[in-house]
Structure formats: structure tokens, C-alpha cells
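Sample intake sheet
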Amino acid sequence: MIRLDARNSLIIAFCLLAIALLLYIPKIYLTNNIYYVSKDVNKLYAHYISLKEENRFLAQQLEDMKFKNQIVDSLIIKSLEEKK
């Protein structure tokens, strides 16, 4: 049986502290790592959403320009046919 004097109590306390640190340091590291990765993912997702909206806006502008170009082309062709 272990005798609990001051020296043995101190050794047991340090051993328990070392075991607790060995168990909790990886958990703390992983939790912090997950937090920072999720921050990066959220930032990238927000950037993705804004780029998606910008793409939608640019596609609409392109469609408008194509439509306007078709109308102008048809008006030019019609005016050239009338001159003949």
C-alpha cells in the first residue's frame, strides 16, 4: 500500500495533472483547428455566394446586350433593304 506523505501526494498530483494534460491538449488543439477551418469555410462560402450573384448579374447584362444587338442589327438590315 502507498503511504501518503507530502512527497507521494505531490507525485500523485503531478501524475494526475500530466494525464489530464495529455488527454485534453489534443482535444483543445482539434477544437481550435476546427474553429479556424470553419471560419475559413464560411469566408470562402460568402465569397462564393457573392461571385455567384455577380455571375448572375453579368449573365443578365450579356443577355440584354445580345437582345439590343439583335434589334439594332435588324433595324440596320431593314434600313439597308429599304435603300435598295
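Comment: The mean pLDDT is 92. The chain is about 95% helix and 0% strand.
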